[in-house]
# Entry
Amino acid sequence: MKISFWQYSRGLPRGIPSDLTKWQSLELLNLSHNNLSSVILNGFEKPLSYVEILYNNLKGPTPNSKTFIEALMEALQGNEGLCGNATVIVLTTLGGAILFLGVVIGYVIMLTWRKRKVTMEKLTRATPMSS
# Structure
């Protein structure tokens, strides 16, 4: 049986309830917009299939678990004091963007070079050679 804990914008007192880490069937967790100001708990036994903790005041490192390593950056944003594994996603995304930009620039350069080559060949054919 799948259990989801969806506590969106309810103003949870204190921090993330520690009992959540013991729920074996918990798969989906959304604690967005709750003004949480604690650290994220490390004790989740089973990886969650979805986590979203947007716009709280969470601080400290994200847990080194599959759930948080694979979480989308958008699911963690709005937590100024949060650090850790989410930076890997930013660097991967930034690296991918730079690689994509490099491919696009390379393609444009190749097209420009090819166009110049074709133009030069046409000019060479059109100009009669004198002996």
About this structure: The chain has a mean pLDDT of 77. The CA atoms of residues 41 and 63 lie 7 Å apart. Strands lie at 3-6, 26-30, 50-52, 59-61, 81-83. The chain has two domains: 3-84, 93-131.
